[in-house]
Amino acid sequence: MTPRSSTMTPTMKQWRQLVLVAMLAWLLIFLALLSHFLDPRDVELRSPSSLTHTETRRLASIQGSPSGIRASPLEVSVSSPANQGHSRQGKQEALELSQNGEVVWNEVSDQEGADQEREEKIRRERLRRRRRRKKRGGRDEYYLSQSKAVVQWLRRGIASAGMLAPHLQKSMRDYLHLNRHHVAYSGQRRGRQSRREVICELKEQARLRTLDGTEQPFSGLGWDRLVPPRPLEQLWDQGSKFKSCAVVTSAGAILNSSLGREIDSHEAVLRFNAAPTEGYENDVGNKTTIRIINSQILARPRHRFNTSSLYKGMTLVAWDPAPYSVDLLRWYGNPDYDLFTPYEERRRLHPTQPFYVLHPKFIWQLWDVIQGNTQENIQPNPPSSGFIGIVLMMSLCEEVHVYEYIPSLRQTDLCHYHEHHYDAACTLGAYHPLLFEKLLVQRMNSASQHDLKTKGKVTLSGFKTERADTNQATEEAKLSQHCRLWAMIWRFNL
User: Fold this and answer.
1) Distance between CA 275 and CA 389 in Å, rounded?
2) Does an H or E element contain 349, and which?
3) Cα angle, residue 73 at apex, residues 72 and 75 outer, rounded to 5°
4) What are 483-494's pLDDT values in tens digits?
5) I want to staple 331 with a disulfide (CB 3.0 to 4.6 A). Which of 119, 183, 238, 322 is the partner?
6) Which residues contact 116 (CB under 8 A, 6 or more apart)?
7) Distance of CA 402 to the CA centre of its chain
8) In 219-354, beta strands by DSSP E
9) Handedness of CA 286, 290, 293, 299 (dihedral sign)
10) Could you tell me which InterPro entries the record lists for this protein (predicted)?
């Protein structure tokens, strides 16, 4: 028994040693594993979704390139202390595939990251612009629909400022409060006058007048030799009148009207400011006899007043809003825009071209007629070039046809047919008392509602008819008698 037990003892000791060795080995493995997971310098397994945005885009560009090697997305990326150092210094790593299929790393500057950020900003800005356009589009549609409703009432002659969109009403209130021209109207507010009465009042109270150089300060500046020798109303055949005239507004509604041939059929055609005909002949015609221009056209370099062909070969009539008191000395020293210097220059360069400056008294007399025929307080600013041009042609013509001053069914908020600017104020007024001007013109209109809706055409009698022989049993004679009677009543009321 003793020998057997002695032979087993060494065996048990060996087993104990083996167990201790195994435990030590497992401990070392555990520590190694722990060290592996805690050490960021070792290999880090990552899924494809953990690739950086830069790496993903780079891989996509490689796979989409004809010269690149098509491969499935990599699942493992390697990070080293050196690479992390470059990252801290503002570098990024881009993953590329070499021609033999090996994965290589290529360092690029962070310019790509800046480009990405810029692209993202552009994307966000485009999104904001789309939202603003959509919002503005909805608002513009609302304003246009409201403008159309006002114009429908305007064609009937019964529109009012209370019908305007809120922003136009606010503009009107602001101009009333500002009163920059120091308007102090003391005339009468008449009730609704007839067509004849309004025409007679304009003829009697607002006579066409231009600067003739006889008043100060112009007489001291030698304007009596500078202005054309013949008055504007006597320019053609010593006072004879045109039988039929056209006034062509710049309204966007005249586009696609095909009115060009009809407009050119009139003896004389008046146009406004910088409205061109080239390229728009089918809608607005070619003929231009008179062009009325506000002082901005003369003063602003972009209009190239003294060099542009747009202002050649026709009679020019300029105007500027002087103070309501018509203080010519004050006006000359402080015009709204300097029209005097360009006028003098053009008269010296082109002495044979008829070029006139409207007397500011004529401008404000027109305003008085508008206010006198309106129970509401209108904007204390001069009438528009449109209304001024209409009355000017009524002084020169037997019959005047005005196109798109009161909009047709083609009505749009496009301000001018030759520009891309939209604003309801161009149709219904903000600075100028446009709504009230158009109400007065509609009261004088003898054209049909069909012409008004399809052509935007208003037909007006000229002032010549008021001088017809009273012995003639004609409409002209009746109108002349009516005007004389109205003038007597008007003077008596004053």
Assistant:
1) 14
2) helix 340-349
3) 120
4) 766 566 655 555
5) 322
6) 53, 54
7) 24
8) 242-248, 268-272, 290-294, 315-319
9) positive
10) Glyco_trans_29 (IPR001675), GT29-like_sf (IPR038578)
CATH 3.90.1480.20 domain extents, the chain: 137-493
Q: 311, exposed or middle or buried, with CB in 10 Å at 0-12, 13-18, 19+?
A: buried
Taking the C-alpha atoms of residue 266 and residue 71, their distance in angstroms, rounded to an integer, is 78
Residue type, position 101, single letter: G
Task: Supply 183's token pair.
Answer: 């308007």
Which has the minimum average pLDDT: 63-67, 144-148, 445-449? Answer: 63-67
Residue type, 222: G
d(CA 397, CA 316): 17
DSSP assignments along 245-256, one per residue: EEEE---GGGTT
pTM of structure: 0.70
**What is the 8-class DSSP label of residue 293?**
E
CA–CA distance, 331 with 121 (Å, rounded to integer): 51
Distance CA 395, CA 247 (A): 13
User: What number does CATH give the domain 137-493?
Assistant: 3.90.1480.20
